[in-house]
Specification:
single chain, 292 residues, alpha/beta, Metallo-beta-lactamase, Chain A, eight-stranded mixed β-sheet, five-stranded mixed β-sheet, 9 helices, 13 strands, binds zinc ion
């Protein structure tokens, strides 16, 4: 017993200086990376009444109509980072072509969350359609994130004949083109699965436009997928039906399947035009839905 105690004491003596040395020489063990945690909000800016469902869900009954939700999304991060995913529309001309109910200018809708345009640090353009990109000039100080292929197709080289530019407005193209010259605010996203903003991953797939994108966002409750029009309605997911407007229906279905892998919970996949978003996530209300 004595022997064991003596051995133990000796061992401690030998180990003690070694431990002291190693504490001084070795770097601290790497801390696991702490990702910024975002709050995700869907923000209503109007409703388009009587929209044909067959233009949203491939193969849907042509007589079905529904009031579709116009919305954009806010990713509210730490340190005053306020990222918009899309930015709605505001130009007068669109009100001539479309009857819009309950319209509120996107910059005014953000006041409900206590935000003014200069508080918006970034705008992620998921795709160049007018109802997602037209509001960009309401947020003139924000960085603008767009896929390289989307930028090249619609903005860099818009006049090549044979391009499908339906739903893309020349004035919106000009606004995005001008960001190149202002405050170095244009941020090109080149490809898929890019975490260019910590906690926010850019994904391609779905091909709603030439190179539409969507994002996966780190929140307290897990990863939320803001799908935008790569998934028009919950019905697309439920029926395993591609969106009706896509350059590539097979790619769209693949993207939908992938969204299920990315999202921590299937209810965290947020479609682009489904009024049910504000039913499933009723808080805080008044046209704002916190995805949680
Ligand atoms: Zn669209």
């Amino acid at each position: 017993m004595k022997m064991i105690r003596r051995l133990l004491a000796l061992t401690l003596l030998i180990l003690a200086p070694a431990a002291g040395m190693s504490a001084g020489q070795n770097p601290a063990p790497a801390q696991p990376e702490v990702k910024p945690v975002y709050e995700v909000y869907a923000i209503s800016y109007g409703v388009l009444p009587d929209f044909p469902v067959s233009q949203l869900v491939a193969g849907a009954d042509k007589s079905r109509k529904m009031d579709i939700q116009m919305m954009f999304w806010l990713l509210k991060g730490p340190g005053g980072r306020n990222i918009l995913v899309d930015c709605g529309f505001h130009r007068e001309k669109f009100f001539k072509d479309w009857k819009v109910k309950d319209y509120i200018k996107p910059s005014d809708a953000l006041k409900k969350l206590g935000l003014k345009p200069s508080d918006i640090t970034d705008v992620i353009i998921t795709h160049m359609h007018w109802d997602h990109a037209d509001g960009l000039d309401l947020f003139p100080t924000a960085k603008v994130w767009i896929q390289k292929d989307e930028y090249d197709y619609y903005i860099n080289d818009p006049d090549t004949p044979g391009k499908n530019r339906s739903g893309v407005d020349p004035e919106d193209v000009a606004v995005v083109a001008a960001t190149k010259n202002h405050h170095k605010q244009l941020k090109i996203v080149d490809g898929d699965n890019k975490e260019l903003i910590r906690g926010v991953v850019f994904y391609t797939g779905g091909r709603h436009t030439y190179a539409s994108q969507y994002v996966g966002v780190n929140t307290k409750a897990g990863t939320v997928v803001v799908a935008s029009d790569n998934l028009y309605l919950y019905e697309n997911l439920d029926k395993h039906a591609p969106i009706a407007a896509t350059f590539d229906a097979a790619s769209n279905l693949k993207a939908q399947e992938r969204m299920k892998q990315i999202a921590s919970n299937p209810r965290f996949i947020v479609p682009g035009h489904d009024p049910d978003v504000f039913v499933r996530f009723p808080k805080p209300g008044n046209g704002i839905a916190k995805i949680e």
